[in-house]
# Entry
Amino acid sequence: MINYYYDNTDDLKPYTHQLEANDDTMPPDNALRIAPEFKDGFCPCEQDGKWVLVEDNREKTAFNIETKDAVKIDYLGELKAGFTLFEPFEFCKWNGKKWVKDKVAENNATIEQNQIMKNSLINQANEKIAVLQDIIDLDMQESNEEEQLKQWKKYRILLTRIDVSDTNISFPTKPE
# Structure
């Protein structure tokens, strides 16, 4: 005969271990003489003198459906409300059943990247124009630096006219 023990300090009373039992004794308060069923993804737990299978996701990673934060599961039972085992991906949102592409978030990120790129290119143009303007103002130009200045100013104007909310921007080519 075998005693099948469960953790009676846990609300779900999960199976813990088994030991040989004496035939002429009763099982302890935290043991049953009925062998538990084992099934992948579940843990046998005692309930009203019987073994029941309870969902077991311990050591898996769950994701918060609002924040997308990952947490290690350390409890028995169904996932807590607001969590899923499905891993989120970039620019997604939870639709109640699964992660779906969030076009608004993707477009906002693209617009933000476009603005960063536009600002960076304008700053580069401003630096180049400032140096070329100094060269010309001090009458220190060589070969085609006046033409270069004109090309860089045109380039800067083209940059300032770019609409960053257009997700298919084509930035102008830098002058040489």
